[in-house]
Amino acid sequence: MKVILFDDVPRLGKVGDVVNVAPGHFRNFLAPRNLAVEATPENIKVLEHRKKTIQKVQAKEKSEADALASKLSALTLKVFLRAGENDRLFGSVTSADLVEKLKSAGFDVDKKKIHLPEPIKSLGEFPVEIKLHPEVTTKVTVVVEKAE
Fold this sequence. Notes:
This protein is an alpha+beta fold. It folds into 2 domains: 2-60, Ribosomal Protein L9, domain 1; 69-146, Ribosomal Protein L9, domain 2 (Roll), CATH 3.10.430.100. Helices cover 34% and strands 32% of the residues. The protein contains 3 helices and 9 strands. The strands form 3 sheets. Strands 4-9-8-6 form a 4-stranded mixed sheet. A 3-stranded antiparallel sheet has the order 2-1-3, with helices on one face. β8 and β9 form a beta hairpin. The longest helix has 33 residues, at 41-73. It is elongated and about 65 Å long. The chain starts with a strand and ends with a strand. The mean pLDDT is 90.
């Protein structure tokens, strides 16, 4: 069954793509979440008109993400936590902690966009990848220091 995607769907396609899916997948997953609509001739005509606006929106989002990436790449976040022997932290630094630090620095970044494989549990300097857009990623340096 051919459907038109209204939103990015992982492992399926991007906004505006016409893709083949199983009827059950469309009926049980895509349609109830308003992620896709059946690709009828009328819907395809509407899609052609929407594609132009979608491309403009995507270009704007990408340019905003590029601007934010250039600002974030120059940023160094300092986190102060209590540490014990061998520079092991009491607790850890998670992506939620980094979101709070970014907000205090004036940046609004979603927690899901921060790719931290595992929480930081020791003192030191760590590069953290932030995926702002499907085509734009940047790295922020996180420095974890011992609190006095």
